[in-house]
């Protein structure tokens, strides 16, 4: 039997088997991705506010210890997955440098054509609570000025109406129930006073990072619950003015999953009815449309020393800590410097040259003779530098004086000049300063215990007892 081999028909295009298999596997995902417009997330915040760490946690990556590299604007992306854990879209993330001089780069992210697909996240941190409100207002003003400069009149008005509708149609339902943002059957409510006063036309999320610093603020700066509620009250008022959602994040990452689902929702164009969480400060989440001025006023119930109408900068002030840390190493004052100060104090307090402090004194032995060594009640075989209880200078001073004493109460001759007494004190302190750390040095406490300071002072002044 023969097998007939048919030549390929040149009229028919050549088919690639592997291309067909790949199309069958990835086709549905690609079609879903092509059906949705890609969204862009713009991240704004001061330097050190935790922008890079927050985004790394959302991407399930290990945060870089070196922080962001370079200046200008940084790009990354966040995968948006469906219920089957398949990537259905990617959210482009643009992080602007914390320096406001880089704000002209906003034109590369937000243009008249991309405005409708933009989301903005304003990042502040609780490590510097005094900068929270000024930072939010600064970046919101920069963003507003840029959007107004685009000249997107009709488009911007339409986007602002969509933001108003989010507040008017918000309902708290089960998280798994999805509704389109333009559902005509939704109940439309009136806006509360002070809501969306500064409507920018795009979704805004305020992320407050480093919520684990609350305990440190309580210990180091004496912040109480009323201070934390005061901070939260002003942040939530800002969010109401701009129609923004609010989330607290930190090392515990309690709101990581919630924030990811919320971003995935907005990025996909769906509306999740995520429930708000205000029970814990380190897990705070308030979606767009949930809050209102009545709920915010509940925070004022904890105010005891703070007035509701006080300005933010008058209550939350930047105070530099002057107290030493509990783990800070304490360095003792140098011995030579300490003795130098004491000598200066003694010379000022006693103009006659006498000893006015508890300086060590030596009681003469009752059986002393003309020898200086016997006057300090030590063996003559012991060198002057090794005599216990007597500094070397003092032993040498008594040795060179030439006076004798036969009884314990005998004193020096009144004819001794006062200048010699000053020399005695000067030699004594100079010896302490010059021979610090010498083995066998005098023990002031031991010497003072064996001598009578009052009598010794009178003797050195040259006055009779």
Outline of the structure:
Helices cover 36% and strands 11% of the residues. It is an alpha/beta fold and 465 residues long. Helix 10 packs antiparallel against helix 13 (418-434).
Write down the Rg.
41 Å
Helicity level, as a percent range?
25-40%
Strand content: 5-15%
The ordered H/E elements are: HEHEEEHHEEHHEHEEHHHHHHHH
Oligomeric state as shown: single chain
Broad structural category: alpha/beta
Name the poorly predicted regions: 1-5, 31-35, 174-182, 354-417, 438-450
Number of helices: 15
User: How would you sum up the major sheet?
Assistant: 7 strands, mixed
Look at the structure and give the mean pLDDT.
75
Shape: elongated
Strand order of the largest sheet: 2-3-1-4-6-7-9
Question: Could you give the count of β-strands?
Answer: 9
What does this structure look like?
The longest helix is centred in the N-terminal third of the chain and has 19 residues, at 17-35. This protein has 465 residues and is α/β, with parallel strands linked by helices. α3 (132-148) runs parallel beside α6 and α12 (392-401) runs antiparallel to α13. The strands form two sheets. A seven-stranded mixed sheet has the order 2-3-1-4-6-7-9, with helices on both faces. It has 15 helices and nine strands. A hairpin with a 5-residue loop joins β2 (73-81) and β3.
């Amino acid at each position: 039997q023969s097998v007939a081999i048919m030549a390929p028909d040149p009229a028919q295009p050549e088919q690639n088997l592997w291309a067909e298999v790949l199309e069958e596997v990835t086709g549905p995902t690609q079609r879903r991705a092509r059906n949705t417009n890609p969204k862009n997330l713009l991240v704004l915040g001061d330097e050190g506010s935790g922008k890079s760490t927050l985004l790394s946690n959302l991407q399930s990556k290990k945060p870089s210890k070196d922080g962001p590299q370079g200046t200008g604007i940084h790009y990354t992306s966040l995968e948006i997955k469906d219920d089957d854990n398949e990537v259905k879209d990617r959210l482009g993330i643009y992080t602007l440098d914390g320096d406001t001089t880089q704000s002209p780069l906003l034109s590369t992210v937000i243009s008249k054509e991309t405005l409708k697909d933009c989301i903005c996240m304003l990042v502040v941190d609780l490590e510097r609570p005094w900068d929270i409100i000024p930072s939010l207002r600064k970046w919101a003003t920069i963003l507003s000025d840029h959007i107004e400069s685009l000249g997107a009149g009709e488009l911007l008005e339409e986007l602002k109406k969509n933001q108003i509708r989010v507040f008017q149609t918000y309902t708290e339902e089960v998280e798994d129930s999805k509704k389109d943002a333009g559902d005509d059957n939704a109940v439309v409510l009136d806006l509360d006073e002070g809501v969306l006063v500064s409507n920018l036309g795009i979704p805004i999320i305020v992320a407050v990072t480093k919520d684990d610093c609350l305990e440190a603020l309580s210990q180091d700066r004496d912040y109480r619950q009323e201070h934390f509620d005061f901070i939260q009250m002003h942040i939530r008022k800002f969010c109401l003015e701009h129609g923004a959602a609010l989330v607290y994040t930190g090392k515990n990452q309690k709101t990581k999953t919630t924030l990811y689902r919320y971003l995935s929702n907005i990025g996909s164009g769906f509306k999740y009815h995520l429930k708000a969480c205000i029970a814990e400060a380190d897990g705070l989440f308030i979606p767009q449309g949930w809050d209102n001025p009545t709920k915010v006023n509940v925070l004022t119930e904890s105010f005891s020393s703070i007035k509701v109408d006080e300005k933010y900068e008058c209550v939350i002030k930047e105070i530099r800590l002057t107290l030493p840390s509990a783990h800070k190493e304490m360095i003792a004052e140098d011995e030579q410097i300490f003795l130098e100060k004491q000598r200066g104090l003694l010379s000022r307090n006693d103009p006659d040259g006498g000893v006015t402090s508890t300086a060590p004194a030596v009681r003469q032995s009752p059986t002393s003779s003309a020898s200086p060594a016997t006057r300090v009640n030590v063996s003559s075989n012991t060198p002057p530098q090794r005599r216990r209880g007597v500094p070397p200078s003092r032993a040498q001073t008594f040795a060179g004086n030439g006076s004798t004493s036969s009884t314990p109460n005998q004193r020096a001759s009144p004819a001794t000049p006062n200048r010699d007494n000053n020399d005695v004190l000067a030699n004594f302190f100079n010896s302490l300063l010059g021979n610090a750390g010498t083995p066998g040095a005098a023990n002031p406490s031991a010497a003072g215990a064996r001598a009578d300071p009052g009598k010794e002072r009178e003797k050195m002044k040259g006055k009779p007892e």
